[in-house]
Structure to design on (1962 residues):
């Protein structure tokens, strides 16, 4: 029996698997849980990050305005399902000047390490390109921006929830179409969240649903089998790219080593709100809640680049599935 | 009168400017100085790095084999003009495993800092892409490879010859055609050559000869006016890309700030061995020698991706030219 | 209070904004109003132009046949909602020979100026490309084709409903992907509808929903604040292009000067018939009716390149919205 | 009155045309008939081939796994509507070694000629590309693979159900890597299913719905008017490629001569399961059943690259339609 | 015997055809006649326009600076061979504001009509694209800029030296790679050099040397056979585009009708200064001198985008050649 | 000591290797041996095939006309060095109608098998694409065209000079439209030169000089070590594609098995006529003569797509070189 290592989270959102359903992950039946109607003036609320906070939940949400410019907003919830999103974008305090240039950000992740909350995101610098942005906060009111992690061309950066071998550890995806290779998941380390090095490839694209590019999703979940990492895989269809969800188990001490990873997708676009929206055929996981008592896992995912959905799985079953469906 | 800060180098290669020539940089009249005939089994000897060593010179040369696979080789010379290139490629000792993956390298630079020689190069990892490789040596016999500087997609990395504000400083070019922005020159810092951060853009592409991409060339030369940085600029012509040479003056203490940079090229492809070769219309500067006594500067540059040439300029004249021809 | 300048149009299609709806534009609840079922043998009826005529309405409709070749047809309606479309395409009388080549046309606009109705459209010349076609009619039975407005590569041409400074005035979009710039809206003048000049850019692409290309929509509506111009904006998503609706206010006397223009979209694809069809995620405005008495505006728009929808707004509210949401 | 030449097939799936429907082909009202729920572990069941067998039907089905790697499976049905698909992929016996390389196959067709069943499919050889794969079976248990038909770059190969002028005859589409280049239908001959020659173009792309590429669909149906060939046509829309169905009549004795071919599509994507799926806007015909007694024809077609649908037409009406709508 | 209609030009540059040479056009043996050494600070002097003026010649030269930004300069010559180029670019007086936007210009042509000299050029507007720029001068000191001829995306515009049917007449090339059709030569008319219309295609690309794009060259030469038009043709080779010279005879009164046009090139890149330069394999004709007494024609042409060459032909022979080598 | 199997050819062109030259292949010092001056009205004479005939030599030459349309011509020579080329293109007698469509041909090879001479070439069908054309002749006066070998998209087809296992054997390269996709060497068989099958890949692209595409060159030479096959390899440089020469040894009885193949190129573009021409940096081998007595081999190759050169090697040395430089 696989186990989640961490705190219990008894009040997390949950719904048992519907009878007859044999998939390893199943949708919340009240999906989508967050839409543009949660915030006036928005075009879409999508790939967002959620974390327990106080006796409820807090999150950093990607909200695309009616201008269709992405932004990141704080949101709050008692139950993890009903959310209030602040109308103002997060204003990052930049003490690093040109080292922390920021035009706009999207696809945030939130991670608690030691004494504070770190936010990472795809950080767009107008006229240059996109890199990984990072910031920390103690209270989700004041956000201190850190220097950008790479000079340029990286996204889908996801921190581990504790230091690995004494260093901050970051999953990330160097990006370049110009090199005829797709986007793979890498691992970088830092002693201080300012300087980064020791880069290693973790897993790469293969074929089928994950043949074009892949990228890390929620903060990895610690289990007794290793780190449970959900990720998205992309394939190019004649009508555009399709985004699905897979998972891998990374070595506990050397998380740049993938022990298992799914050949088969765990969940692909199928519900109408996943099939049709501003970007059709997208399920994009960005955050997870996990209860060490019960092994329950809830995945927050963007659907069709338009709304936010919730899906569930159970740690023992999913780890079993990953192992059995691994390359 | 501008001055080079550093050691005198009385025996460096030199040739006075031909009469009537009004260009700020002029070619050696015995160019090309190194060709494939310097090393049996080679297709070309091109973009290479040279540095004073003992009472002569040593270098790290890019040699493309008859398979047209690039490699880096040590070369030695008494006079900086006649070179003997070792037939074996440099074998880097890798103590960092997957953090320092290496399939092959090209376009090396060599830099002496404090107590040793550092080599940086475009480091290709088969199946992944290219990043910045780094290594150090004390004797050009044993080379210790350091972890790769970025996860992926960076090249033309050039170290400063001393620490800036206590940190190693690296010019570099993040690379991606996929983002519709060309290649610009960035500045990154490291406390230890292992972890890198504090990334800033230095200068970007503009138009004309430097409208498509730009990249740092030789190790920057310290002068009383700031750091003298030669670089290459690329423009797309109907018959392919053309590579020319420009220069900039970077702030002494904050070298990520360019004080001046040439609107006009300093030297473009014109000699037959620059116009015609495996890649036509290329002059690609990779190394410089400088004599603080006389202000003489010698630039080593790859020509047409096929041979190595030598060009000269004088510090006072060139700095004056840069200032007068700056944006 | 902003006012429409022009005739009252008491019998125009209208529906009050649904309660609770806070959008500046709202859909007709019987959309789509025209589909392929309005004309046997058609695959789709889409981007079309409508204008008051007699005691009812007349229009020039884009009908794509089952061959999926676009064509333009006359349609008639009492109420502007229920339409009868003529099965035969419009046959333009060409008195200009090779100056008015025509293979097929699409995306028509209709404009009444002084004494007659002008039709403009995207005019495809097989083997050459597309330019702006123009014709006039007095009775929608005989159509006299004028010379093509440009040699080639222009579309989305929209006339102003009266001469500006004594000249015909035409919004248009020069087209070229080859130049790495998107499609922007220009303004051209003509003394006689035969010779054109005095070209000026009006507004260009910016970012988000209007970051890839933009093009004028219905005939501009004269108001006391200036010309009210609705337009479409296009953004490239991973699953294809998405077309939304924006608006601008152009200077009354110098309409090549945009006084305001929406940062935010006014209406994007959201209804099922806009999300899904032969070309997903398209709302494409082509015609407007306006009542100077009440300030009511009805916009005809193509949805998903498959059907025709109707949306409403009110002049005072929309102008207010444009001003508040302008760059 | 046109007639089908061949056996009666009284128990074939059939449904009369709904009243009021004037289209030449109409959908089964219980579509989709086969989905991923017909086989656990599948992502989609799509472009598949069906043929009478014993007192029921048998088929070769394209099943894409949850890895989204295509595979071909045998399926069985009593009524042609309810199918049981074998969980194991077909294992081809390869007696031809490198002449019959096979990584995976998709879009199968099945054809009975003289004494056995031939299967042809798009045969992907990893690292090389795709060509036409071929095999035969007597019992749908043992499949003998034949040498690949072309060195590379061909797909949509469809055999005629009897030899033409004493030779096996194969419709096919020479192609290129990727989705982006055009493709026309060719005719090749073979004395023995091992060596192929006498290649001729049959019909090419034209414009509109069949402007980008075309490919043969079911095994051609013999009629007294010639061979009735259904095919798919593809057009590039701003939101991706759209696949529709057309038909042609080929000369009885010289089937490389098309007597008629539809300018208009016969059926395009319109039902929700055709509009939306892993690849939106696809109807892709792969098999047909025909009853010589009644003239009834049932077409099996893949919908949205996700499920299998069934559509009907009547030989006399469809041939009449083709003739009237021909170029 | 064909005849040039116009003034005698006894002092024009000339050199008899070398013995043994059977080509219809032959090179000046002192080519290149103008290089970057004619103007300090220039990278290249290329596609330029020349016209008789006083007892000598005057011209508008394309000079690319060391920044590789094109510019247009006045040049003067006694003999048409030795040229002095003004170091300052032409400053156009713009009385038309945004109708005559100008960032920089290149590939000028000069034409005398009625009472003044008109200059047309490829007019680049930064951030928009390129269109046709136009200006007039009486003295080559003051240049009055006219409104740009098209909104955007046109180049290689060449005026006829007299009004045709009472209107200014302009050869031009609408430009768009986005439409998958190459660049063809069009004809536009204007009553006043401000408003343009009556656009017609003259000749298009065919195959071989003129298969990719074509563009008009010098001002057409009036002959008793019609207008003699030299033009360039472009073909895509594996090592880039190749530019060659062809010719056509246009109808005297309806010059949009080509009576003859060369299937074969008249002159392709062959001399070293044509083969090798900033853009290899380019001969680009821009101006012509013609002597009605002797039938001598001198063509000025840019070579390899780097220098200016001179080639000769004789009216009778060239017209004969065109007729015999026409499609 | 390796030996050529076949007839002696004492009068073949030959020149001993220059002293000091250590390359396995060396150029004729009177290169280029054939240029456009060998045939009036030609732009270039390039990739051509030569074979012993009577007491001299005969060949099929690729001649590109001044229209730059390729054509194939017969040429004759006493010594294999001085050639007379017939001004008329070969007229193929087509007894196969649409099975042997032919618009124009290029890059011919000539092979004697049993009783006649076969010509194969890249066969362009206008509006379709290119495939392999084939014909035979007894006397080089009458050429009987055979059916095209593949439906479409194949080139560089080269016959073996005798049947292999009783069948005609053809090296070929499946390809795609355009220049930009890779291409490997395949092997196909035919019992009768009409029907083809049994396709197998022989060797593929690897990296460096042969990383983009490869294609067979002259008719393979039989030796006691196996078939000696010269081929061209292509790599993409920033200034265009570069074509070099390599070689392989194929198994005598199963020539689809490569025993050895050169990692290093044998000869790359270096002479001025190879570096510069209509397509820079091309050496393209198309024919070979071999003398079994002395082991001498002469290679005819196209240079820079403009002229024909001759290079030499010696069977023993070249086979030794291939073995030592093989993968």
């Amino acid at each position: 029996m696989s186990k989640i290592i961490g705190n219990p989270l008894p009040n997390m959102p949950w719904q048992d698997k519907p009878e007859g359903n044999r998939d390893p992950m199943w949708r919340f039946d009240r999906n989508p849980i967050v839409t543009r109607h949660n915030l006036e003036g928005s075009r879409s609320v999508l790939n967002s990050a959620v974390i327990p906070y106080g006796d409820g939940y807090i999150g950093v949400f990607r909200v695309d305005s009616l201008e269709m410019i992405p932004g990141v907003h704080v949101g709050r919830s008692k139950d993890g399902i009903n959310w209030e999103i602040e109308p103002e974008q997060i204003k990052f305090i930049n003490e690093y000047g040109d080292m922390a240039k920021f035009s706009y950000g999207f696809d945030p992740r939130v991670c608690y390490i030691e004494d504070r909350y770190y936010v990472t995101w795809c950080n767009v610098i107008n006229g240059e390109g996109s890199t990984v942005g990072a910031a920390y906060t103690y209270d989700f009111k004041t956000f201190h921006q850190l220097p950008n992690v790479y000079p340029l061309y990286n996204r889908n950066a996801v921190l581990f929830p504790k230091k690995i071998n004494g260093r901050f550890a970051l999953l990330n995806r160097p990006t370049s179409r110009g090199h005829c290779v797709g986007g793979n998941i890498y691992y970088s380390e830092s002693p201080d969240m300012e300087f980064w090095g020791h880069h290693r490839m973790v897993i790469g694209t293969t074929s089928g649903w994950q043949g074009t590019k892949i990228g890390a999703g929620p903060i990895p979940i610690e289990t007794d089998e290793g780190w449970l990492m959900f990720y998205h895989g992309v394939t190019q269809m004649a009508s555009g790219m399709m985004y699905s969800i897979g998972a891998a188990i990374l070595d506990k001490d050397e998380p740049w080593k993938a022990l298992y990873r799914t050949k088969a997708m765990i969940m692909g676009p199928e519900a109408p709100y996943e099939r049709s929206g501003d970007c059709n055929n997208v399920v994009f996981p960005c955050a997870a809640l996990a209860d060490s008592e019960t092994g329950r896992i809830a995945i927050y995912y963007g659907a069709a680049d338009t709304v936010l959905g919730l899906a569930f799985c159970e740690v023992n079953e999913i780890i079993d599935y990953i192992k059995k469906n691994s390359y």
Chains D and E do not touch (no CB pair under 8 Å). The mean pLDDT of chain D is 95.
